[in-house]
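Margin note from the TA: students keep mixing up input and output lines. Inputs are the sequences; the output is the structure of the whole complex. Example:
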Amino acid sequence: MQALLILAILVLAFVIIFQISKASEYVAVLRGWERTRKQTNRINAFMLLAFLVLGLIGVYLCNEKFKGRILGEPASDHGVLVDQMLYVTIAVTFVVFLITQIALFWFSYKYQESDTRKAYYYPHNNTLELIWTVIPAIALTVLVGFGIVYWFRITGEAPKEAMQVEVVGKQFGWEFRYPGADGILGKKYFKNVDPVNGNPAGQIWEDSTNKDDIFVEQEMHLVVGKPVKLVIGAKDVIHDVGLVHFRMKMDAVPGTPTTMWFTPKYTTKEMKEKTGNPDFVYELSCDQMCGRGHWSMRGVVVVETQEEFDAWLASKKPQYLVANPDKDPATPKEIPAAPVNAVAKN
Amino acid sequence: MSEVVKTSAPVSEGAHIAHPHEQAHEHHHETFVSKYIFSMDHKTIGKQFLITGIVWAIIGGLFSVLFRLQLGYPEESFPILETFFGEWAKGGQIQPEFYYGLVTIHGTVLVFFVLTAGLSGTFANLLIPLQVGARDMASPFLNMLSYWFFFLAGVVMLSSIFVHTGPASGGWTMYPPLSALRQAGDGQKLGADLWLISMSLFIISSLLGGLNYIATILNMRTKGMSMTRLPLPIWAMFFTAVLGVLSFPVLLSGAILLLCDRNLGTSFYLSDIVVNGEILPNEGGSAILYQHLFWFLGHPEVYIILLPAMGMVSEILSVNSRKPIFGYMAMLGSLFAICILAFLVWAHHMFVTGLNPFLGSVFVLLTLLIAVPSAIKVFNWITTIWRGNIRFTPATLFAIGFVSLFISGGLTGIFLGNSTIDIHLHDTMFVVAHFHIVMGVASFFGMFAGVYHWFPKMFGRYLNNTMAYMHFWVTMIGSYLIFWPMHYQGLAGVPRRYLDKRGWVSFNDFADLDKMITVVSIVVFAAQLLFVFNFFYSIFKGRKVRTANPWGANTLEWTTPIRPGHGNWEGDIPEVHRWPYDYGKDGREFIPQTEPVSAQETKSH
């Protein structure tokens, strides 16, 4: 019913607009086409100026309304670089935006058609062209320079002391694997994936570095102030590890492992205080379209102190023991390291 | 610069149409079918592209209204949607798979069917022969085929909306493995195959058209029409065609490999996949390979969409400012630079795919380099209207709107082209806002400017001005209201293609904004329907054109009769003596290209 009403109103509005438009054309012809045209010209010139003024006020108001909802303090040291670059770029582009938009609309208003003015024949001026080739080129070089320096710092090798976590995306959730005491993620092979028998990650049990690896889902724990290197993969389609508060993002591609690293600056608890939001959590979002559940593919990142982290990790059982309950735990039998499958992939 | 190129003259003098004089008269056994359906007249083919483009624009626009309803009002239910879409909108709520189908078809249709075929198909066909002084395209038959392949592509795409499992829903980029695996979702079943077939047909259509445009521009210019006397829309169409001819085949290969992966068990893009609990045998493929193939077209595609709009805007601003375009040669040079650089920046869409960081930095440099020719163009347009005597026809307003949007959207490109910032903004609403302003809305503005400016040439009538001005102001204000605040969502990191953000702590801050955008987009869509109505009404009932040159323009299309027949000129094709932008020279308002240069004239250009 409501839809019908809206439809009826729309149709009515259409009919009215159409009638007005038709009538105004007749009136224009009767009053003299040229006179009406000139009047319309003046109105539109004024409207362009009004659009500029109101538009700039709108830009200001929009910023006032929304500036509190964007960004917030970056929660990683890489995020600080990203934000710096962002604010420099906003400043530079906003100046250019103002100059060009004001010139465009002001000239439109100022040089509207008038019987007393003749257009100025001005086909080219090489000095001007040179000026507005060189100045943007220099400005962009500066931006590119900073951008590339930051880019290499962010994408460079992770520090040696960085902890490793494997992140795997699947339709529609996240899986994580911690290397355990040996600090090495064991080898895996996708054909070994067998969630029913306790091997959701496809670990190769013959690889002895796998025996202490810990597998968890949906929630990743990190240590504050400690660099972390994420080894990223996907099981089915391309996903993307998006960590908005850390300003980090990296695709998760099936068959091609990717990596990224950063250092969390604040624990979840500290962020709750900083944001004044008791419900604050670091969220892990999928940022690459991955199918019908893409919009709800949410993971949680908990940043905590080293002690809290160690306690959490200690409470987890290595996946090897979950998959092979007979080996658990009173009788740890030494299994001879079998030759690792040649096609094994990490 | 002003010497006559003689080589082109004999070719165009009726060499391929045997009897130009006969052709020019209305009655040479033309049936309804040969005149309006399987027509070989470039003007009719142009109109066919335009009208088909309008139909697709309505469909694509309507889809955006549907998914905006979901975005603005995720908690509401709209029973009317269930009436029309059944299980796709169960309980009056758009289901996720359908939502992604809508997004995919919206993007594909608007990028390819409307802003590629509808824009350059229309105006390249209409303007190239008329402005270079030729009776028709180099090959009218291939030209006709180009339209009908496009039509066929449209039929296949349309049919995919009606299959049981729904249309393709992998996004307009159709990245595998999602788009390669039937198990990954309903839209990846028959819909994806139909999408790929439709795109392949479309690519054939583009290639046939593009080759024709290039051949016509190079070989069929009239006597005196040297390359540097070409109006800027023609140069823009030329570079557009070159971009298309060189990049579309790459997408075709990408689509064919994807079809093979889907149907023949190959592993071009597939490796190490466990989908829905099923372990696939494929090993050794690279999912990223497709992205390289796609964006090798995908980025030039942005310029395929933009360049014709730029060309037409240059022409319209010059004509209506009654002033020459400022820096004709710089405009040419920047078009050329954009054309070259367009091929060298594709990987900036892939900064966070795990691309080698060094390679990434090279693409940052090349991407930001492309801002330089863009800046030159903007400054030249502004200088063109400076000290002009501007007539605000609807076309002029849309041209000014184009420049404004191109500035706004171009500047946000500097954010995204910088890989450091892109880490944060990649695949967020910031990207959506950026490319809708700079590529979507701006090109639409160029297209509207073209339609309002050349409608009198197409149909011998004017569009209604009152409706035209309303159309402009609602669209202009609405576009900024929709896309300007959307940047803030992106800065907050809200990802694209999230149909409901209520489950998130970080992204649930913009419900009011989403509602506002939805309401405005419905109003803007209604304004476009007003334009469509004006368009069809004016074809039959518009005010008649009574002078051959209603805008007082210099270019050749206004030397033809008001309603030109097949062959365009009744007598000989006119000879050209000067560049097309002698406006306001020596105290004269305009000097047509056909007028010989007199001895007293000031020397310039």
